[in-house]
Amino acid sequence: MELINKALEFEQRKMRSLSTSDRVKVSREAKALILDLNQIYKQKKDQNIMDIMKRLTAIKRKVEKRLKGAPLTA
User: Fold this and answer.
1) Of 15, 13, 11, nearest in space to 34 by CA
2) In this predicted structure, what is the pLDDT of residue 74?
3) Collapsed DSSP state (helix, strand, coil) of residue 73
4) CA separation (Å) from 17 to 22, 23, 31?
5) Distances (CA, A) of 10 to 7, 31, 55
6) Full-prediction pTM beyond 0.85?
7) What φ, ψ does residue 5 adopt, rounded to 5°?
8) Mean pLDDT, all residues of the chain
9) What digits encode the pLDDT tens for the residues 31-66?
10) In Å, what is the CA distance from 61 to each residue of 28, 36, 45, 46?
């Protein structure tokens, strides 16, 4: 349950005005949390864990989208 609390705490963090290195750290931390939660989900099949993983994935995608930048128009 410590992992779930850590994931919920991660969700509540402020994600404003992050530097590039902060975004990379956030993305890596989100990935690690998602993978660890997935291991628990495989055993318990708890829908709440799946919901947490989905929310973390949304945060991770948002951060990575900002990291990659806008596509160039020709």
Assistant:
1) 11
2) 61
3) coil
4) 9, 10, 21
5) 5, 12, 11
6) no
7) -65, -40
8) 88
9) 999 999 999 999 999 899 999 999 999 999 998 888
10) 11, 18, 24, 23
User: Which helix H or strand E contains 58, and what residues bound it?
Assistant: helix 47-68
Residue 35 tokens, joined: 């993978």
CA 58 – CA 54 distance, rounded (Å) = 6
- Mean pLDDT value across residues 11-36: 89
Q: How far apart are CA 56 and CA 74, in angstroms?
A: 34
Measured CA to CA, the distance from residue 68 to residue 65 in angstroms comes to: 5
Q: To the nearest 5 percent, what fractions of the chain are helix, strand and coil?
A: 80, 0, 20
Q: Which residue has the higher pLDDT, 15 or 44?
A: 44
Closest listed residue to residue 32, CA positions, set 14, 53, 17, 18:
53
